[in-house]
Amino acid sequence: MINREQITADYQLIQDEICAALELADGKAHFEEEKWEREGGGGGRTRVIQNGNIFEKGGVNFSAVHGKLPDSMIKAFKVEQDDFFATGISIVIHPNHPLVPIIHMNIRYFEMPSSFGEGQKPVRWFGGGIDLTPHYVIDEDARYFHAYLKSVCDNYNHDFYHRFKLWADDYFFIKHRNETRGIGGIFYDRLMENEENSWDSIFEFSKSLGRSFIPIYTELVKRNRDKTFTELEQQWQYQRRSRYTEFNLVYDAGTKFGLETNGRIESILMSLPPTAKWLYNYQPEAGSEEEKTLSLLKKGINWV
Amino acid sequence: MINREQITADYQLIQDEICAALELADGKAHFEEEKWEREGGGGGRTRVIQNGNIFEKGGVNFSAVHGKLPDSMIKAFKVEQDDFFATGISIVIHPNHPLVPIIHMNIRYFEMPSSFGEGQKPVRWFGGGIDLTPHYVIDEDARYFHAYLKSVCDNYNHDFYHRFKLWADDYFFIKHRNETRGIGGIFYDRLMENEENSWDSIFEFSKSLGRSFIPIYTELVKRNRDKTFTELEQQWQYQRRSRYTEFNLVYDAGTKFGLETNGRIESILMSLPPTAKWLYNYQPEAGSEEEKTLSLLKKGINWV
Questions:
Q1: How far is the C-alpha of A168 from the C-alpha of A172, rounded, in Å?
Q2: What is the CATH number of the domain that holds A191?
Q3: ipTM score of complex
Q4: What is the mean pLDDT of residues A98-121?
Q5: What is the pLDDT of residues B238-282, one digit of tens each?
Q6: Nearest to B99 by CA among B130, B144, B54
Q7: Whose CB has fewer CB within 10 Å in chain A, the N or C terminal residue?
Q8: Minimal CA separation from B197 to chain A, in Å
Q9: What is the domain range of residue A14?
Q10: CB B278 to CB A59 under 8 A?
Q11: B304 inside domain
């Protein structure tokens, strides 16, 4: 039976693997690490890369925290006051190049240790997801991204991709703009043991998703990093980043939770872009690539 | 007895006065106007100025809306389902120059017309405020700003400045950063007739505050517009704008209300800066002007 020590150790290892591979892909910048401790228990390793060849700003954060459940968690999870333990990796990368997409990945595990006694149903679950936010949607990249995620999911359960893709469409949605953050991906929460999935298999799925980040993203970087781009495309990138900011500050559950519970603020907000622009009432030209991208920022597109 | 038609007309006039004076101060850019209608009733005039000599992006919005109370208002105001009417002016200006401050002004009026029958206590109130967000806090400008607001307040009630200054300190506060948005100003809500203040006097106060915007801001522009500035100061300005963005998207009541009630999104988010930057874990140098500014972004400073 998997336990929190094993999950913590494996997540830390995955953080190490991802940081090493991103530094290699960038070829210039290195991660700065901040180790931090949480007042109520536990802590984390925030790692941020800035001003690289490829990556303008990116964070690969690991944390493992425990203690008494904060009030907002009690409300969100509809549970009684109790101890909790939570660990996870959270990544957001903002590249320099407007044709290289923004990417986000998160894998996480939560448990309430007091429920682990004999004859009790343990309260524990996994969650996570990967979603892609291209500044310009490139069809073959979008198909590649979703096909890769489907193959990761299919190794564990043939329902996962379909269910978690719909979930991502709903979750990564900027309601006030009536547009999705990007082309989605997969998102899941409260994944627990049942007749179909053992704890071991769910944990393996979580790690497998974490380890898919590097092959997926390095491929997308490789495909686009040497393309030429214009000043107009760069400006559009900054405008798309402002939508990313709107999503993260207004809707993202992890960000809201962090702000409400006095998390380490620079770790929580590492997801925000290095530069973002808000132009009033900007409308892309009819028939432009920008307009095409907007037309693809909607739920329910089947990319596989 | 003042009525909504009169308030609406006077607020529209104040919007016109402010836009004319800002165009004059800028000397280059002109306001673009969008007239919009609200599905449930009423509408507004959004006016935005961009890429001026002085003003990089600013909005001076008027609206007068009515209809059935949205659910979020019923909850916020703790009232029953009913008709409402609300009108107001809302301004945010982001200047080009890092030594010219960001400014925000709002005056507004709300009523529930069904409460206006004989023998009933009418449900109606005024609200508003002005607050200043200097990228660099300049002591004499801060004192000038607060002294001006105090003199506006003192013409109507000698308690107003003290009460509304404290209210602004609490309202314009970025909790997750433990810093105020800027140097505050005044903020008030649900101001109603009582032994001390008649409806006429409260309405005059509202208009007087609206009309103080131009003398206050043009003076602050004049004092600073011709100063030289460095690239570092410009970068710091972009970083301060990102804090402004955090406040508006995470805390500002008007913005949240607009997003939740499907308001005209470009009018609501005109307050967001043209360019903002988020640098990871940025710490100003010891003894720098940037550090001095941070040290003054706290509640409870007496500027008069």
A1: 6
A2: 3.40.1500.10
A3: 0.94
A4: 93
A5: 999 999 999 999 999 989 888 887 789 999 999 999 999 999 999
A6: B54
A7: N
A8: 38
A9: 4-295
A10: no
A11: no
